[in-house]
Amino acid sequence: MTVSFKSDIVPLFTSMDIEHMSALGARLDDYSFMSRPGTASLVYEQVSSGKMPPSTSGEQRWSEGNVQLFRAWMDGGYQP
Ligand code: HEM
């Protein structure tokens, strides 16, 4: 299965994630930003460790399935 940024990855982020991180310069819904390998790795590190989204935000940490989906998107060559 091909994992696509638009269909599979963007929906993993809540509007709160997108708004708060955009204010800090990380545009989670922007393909050209997210498909840079360094950026994708940093985001992967945050969601797989549970550092992001912060527990203080009231959001749950990502499920293992969501983390694996993000990983599969990276391994699949960052398909749009
Ligand atoms: C490049 C990776 C990321 C970095 C370096 C990063 C860094 C930060 C920092 C420094 C803050 C403000 C301080 C804090 O509340 O801890 C923050 C807030 C936040 N981040 Fe991230 N973040 C990243 C990715 C993400 C991702 C992938 C998500 C969602 C899945 C996310 C969701 C949030 C939310 C919801 C807040 C606001 C928390 C609040 O105001 O209650 N961030 N992030």
Question: What features would you describe in this structure?
Answer:
The structure is a single chain. With 80 residues, the chain is mainly α. 54% of the residues lie in helices and 0% in strands. It has one domain (5-75). It has helices spanning 5-9, 15-23, 31-34, 37-49, 64-75. α4 packs antiparallel against α5. The longest helix has 13 residues, at 37-49. The protein binds protoporphyrin IX containing FE (HEM). Protoporphyrin IX containing FE is lined by residues 13, 16-17, 20-21, 24, 26, 28, 42-43, 46-47, 52-54, 56-57, 59.
Spatial shape:
globular
Mean pLDDT over the residues: 97
* Straight-line distance between termini: 14 Å
* Beta content: under 5%
- The number of distinct β-strands equals 0
Descriptors:
80 residues; 5 helices; mainly alpha; 54% helix; single chain
Fold topology:
Elements: H1 5-9, H2 15-23, H3 31-34, H4 37-49, H5 64-75
TL;DR?
With 80 residues, the protein is mostly helical. It has helices at residues 5-9, 15-23, 31-34, 37-49, 64-75. It has one domain (5-75).
